[in-house]
Amino acid sequence: MKGYQYLENDFFDLCKTREIGRIPMLLYIYLRGLYCRFQKPIFFCFDKQIKDHLCISQSTLSRARDYLQKRGVITYKSGKGTHPTEYTMLGTVLLPVVKKTTPYRHTQAQRYRQNNDTIYTSKEILKKKVGIIFQGMSDKDRDFLKTKGIL
What we know:
Blueprint: H1 11-17, H2 22-38, E1 42-45, H3 47-54, H4 58-70, E2 74-77, E3 85-89, H5 122-133, H6 139-148
Antiparallel strand pairs: 1-3, 2-3
Helix pairs in contact: 2-4
């Protein structure tokens, strides 16, 4: 289910012991969702978007961010003008574990073949391959085919 966030490890009890109130907790849950969406601990978000989604004022948002930063769960650099605010989620027990994303099916992994055989040079390896592939027919095989009338 897209957009679903599971609050594990007794999230609300941990917030209570850290004395995180309801508005900062709401903001933190919102930022956790963005963290899971972007799959990175550092991301950018506009204040207007957060205010609209959470239905809070700018002063409430500022107080909640300051409170979360004092509690050591996030750090932020406020954006000025048309620049978004940079949020950094600090690794605590309140933060979910983000699984590494799987690569697309159509992209091939860049792998390199490693040649551990250092005795032969590359030309000697090619000579050995050519000798095995283009071996030809032996006289015994040729005589056998002549007796069958194929050759």
